[in-house]
Design brief:
Length: about 180
């Protein structure tokens, strides 16, 4: 327990977030009526989306996912890591919010989580929808709908800042508590 506290004070939640896929390695699969073809992404990247992606993963296809989401108006971040042109390979909280917004806009799923309803999981159905919309294919969401449901990045940035303040305050509390007599 002491090591866990030390690690949290030093690394915050990063080690735990990165291990999230290990907590429950069997998220509910997305329901799909057909097999998922591998489709090229019309971006500057030559990658495709062929892998199930979930919060906490670090994978090259997460960068492709972020590029597509950012270009469709489901902005990961307004600046810094994850922002347009600064996409990363880490599937973090902001990517999860953007994926969920996209899933809801596409009427794929709008509630639950990765382990109960696949909300936030990029599986075959979400991959197909992402690639179809990115290519402007049949059945894709019209452009006004895509741009009408972007993430309010100012609010997301504020949430991230407040969480950082909370983490800093928790560290200060832990430091003070460690100085108290046992």
């Amino acid at each position: 327990m002491n090591y866990a506290r030390y690690l949290y004070q030093r690394e915050k939640t990063n080690p735990w977030i990165s291990s999230m896929p290990c907590w429950n390695p069997n998220p509910i699969p997305e329901q799909t009526s057909q097999s998922s073809p591998t489709t090229s992404v019309p971006t500057s990247t030559s990658n495709t989306l062929t892998t199930n992606l979930i919060f906490g993963m670090v994978h090259p296809q997460v960068q492709t996912l972020q590029i597509i989401l950012n270009r469709l108006g489901f902005v990961i971040s307004s600046n810094g890591p994850g922002s347009l042109g600064n996409e990363t390979t880490k599937f973090g909280a902001l990517t999860r919010v953007a994926v969920r917004s996209f899933q809801c806009a596409q009427n794929i799923i709008c509630s639950g989580d990765e382990y109960t309803t696949a909300y936030g999981l990029v599986g075959p159905r979400t991959r197909d929808a992402l690639l179809r919309v990115a290519q402007g294919g049949a059945g894709s969401v019209p452009a006004p709908l895509v741009t009408a449901i972007p993430i309010n990045t100012a609010e997301v940035d504020r949430i991230v800042a407040i969480k950082a303040q909370i983490a800093q305050l928790q560290k200060q509390i832990a430091d003070l508590q460690s100085k108290l007599p046992q």
